[in-house]
Amino acid sequence: MMNHFLNLSDAGGNVLAAMLNDAMDRKAARKGLPKGLADADAPLAGHVLAMIFEKNSTRTRTSFEMAIRQLGGQPMMMTSDQMQLGRGETIEDTAQVLSRFVDAIMIRTDDHAKIEALAANASVPVINGLTDQSHPCQILADLLTILESGKALPGLQIAYLGDGNNVTSSIIEAAGLLKFNVAIASPEGYDPDPAFVAQARERGARIDIMRDAMAAAKGADVIITDTWVSMGQAHADEKIAAMMPFQVNDAVMAAAKDDAIFLHCLPAHREEEVTASVIDGPQSRIWDEAENRLHAQKSVLLWALGKL
Length: 308
Ligand code: CP
Ligand code: NVA
Prior knowledge:
Elements: H1 13-29, E1 48-53, H2 59-70, E2 74-79, H3 91-99, E3 104-108, H4 112-121, E4 126-128, H5 136-148, E5 157-161, H6 166-178, E6 181-185, H7 194-202, E7 207-210, H8 213-217, E8 222-225, H9 237-243, H10 250-255, E9 261-264, H11 276-279, H12 286-304
Parallel strand pairs: 1-2, 1-3, 3-4, 5-6, 5-8, 6-7, 8-9
Helix pairs in contact: 1-6, 1-12, 2-12, 3-4, 5-6, 5-12, 6-7
This protein binds phosphoric acid mono(formamide)ester and norvaline.
Phosphoric acid mono(formamide)ester binds at residues 57-60, 130, 138, 265-266.
């Protein structure tokens, strides 16, 4: 069976834990090396990763490109507007063709059904670099950042404030797999995907959906938010207004534990979903979080290619 990574459940809790351990070891082992130099064991030497972008990216693009390079392999960067995919060639045919040239495919796209069709028709592993449904690689990097802050995952309390979106779904999915709890505070009409909530609850995680930011933040170990307007969504003044009571600000951080950390996948909009005082303040770990995309994804690539 192919090791596709479309959602965190494709790997499961034990594999995710192994990925996090491997990421920490690899990160420590290459400390001080120039960024463009491969890891000493270069475990993916000779392997090529195609990266298809149907949406913009800074972190996902650079971290995957550096990840495959540091593992000894090579990236192949593609954007759908420069491919026949952009003028109507099917995702199924694209999957067949790319599988003849490369060893793995990472894609950022809109409709999650597209990545499922890509995976169903590819004979190489497919990795989700964000869809409208989920953003599993981001959450793996978040978990690595949480572990580095000295917190353990079982029993952890995360508060997510704002729009119930693709990032929220992957946080909820991780909670079910790794046994932590999430309190989500969002305005009515912007709740997280109920299928992810139900699945995590079945797996034993406590997932609270609230309408009060302070109540969700109370006693939290980690506070997370994301943009109120995701890629592909229209900017709507009424949505921004509805989200305003769910902004992460100093009062929200004060309700969390004293040693709570703040995470944001970025890009951020200061004074919308988070104040500058928080995102640029002492509890923020956003730059480690961004860097950890690289380290976490190296482990995803190794697992996808049967090397973890
Ligand atoms: N967090 C994240 O996925 O960033 P990019 O959109 O820059 O890739
Ligand atoms: N929810 C955001 C995440 C960006 C990395 C989006 O989909 O645009």
